[in-house]
Amino acid sequence: MRKTKVINTQISSVISDMGHFDTLSIGDAGMPVPVGTKKIDVAIENGVPSFIQVLTNILSELEVQKVYLANEIKTANPEQLAAIKALIGETPIEFIDHSQMKQDLNKAKAFVRTGEMTPYSNIILESGVVF
């Protein structure tokens, strides 16, 4: 059994397969996932697990060089934005329109669906390198 924090086999496999500039997305329960994008559904009920719980877990193993967030989170969910900023530290953020984020999911290695039920709780993580 793994000793690391990510024990979900599908998430672990995607992280292991990530290369430089590859993307992985995490989102709320309502985010539409394009056909062809791998969906890893970890939601079990409203709010469980939360977006922040899943993001924290994935950040424990994935080297992230940049994140993408929807512009709309600034006004529609500032509490979630503050929580994300606290987790990612100095990692650069690029704000994009929510419609663009939905399109960019086509390029993601996978989308992890959480039980989050707050608006614009979605992120695209761009993989960095550890050297």
Describe the fold and architecture.
- Helices cover 31% and strands 21% of the residues.
- The protein has 131 residues and is α/β, with parallel strands linked by helices.
- The protein has a single domain, classed as RbsD-like fold, CATH 3.40.1650.10.
- A six-stranded mixed β-sheet has the order 2-5-1-6-3-4.
- Helix 2 runs parallel beside helix 4.
- The longest helix has 11 residues.
- The mean pLDDT is 97.
Percent helix range: 25-40%
Number of separate helices: 5
Mean pLDDT: 97
Radius of gyration: 13 Å
| Secondary-structure element series | HEEHEHHEHEE
- The third-level CATH topology is RbsD-like fold
Q: What is the assembly state of the chains in this entry?
A: single chain
**Residue share in β-strands:** 15-25%
Structural class: alpha/beta
Total domains, how many?
1
Distance N to C terminus: 27 Å
Shape: globular
Going by CATH, what is the homologous superfamily?
Answer: RbsD-like domain
For the record, the CATH architecture stands as 3-Layer(aba) Sandwich
Unreliable stretches, pLDDT < 50, 5 or more residues? Answer: none
CATH class category name:
Alpha Beta
- Sheet with the most strands, sense and barrel status: 6 strands, mixed
Trace the largest sheet across and list its strands: 2-5-1-6-3-4
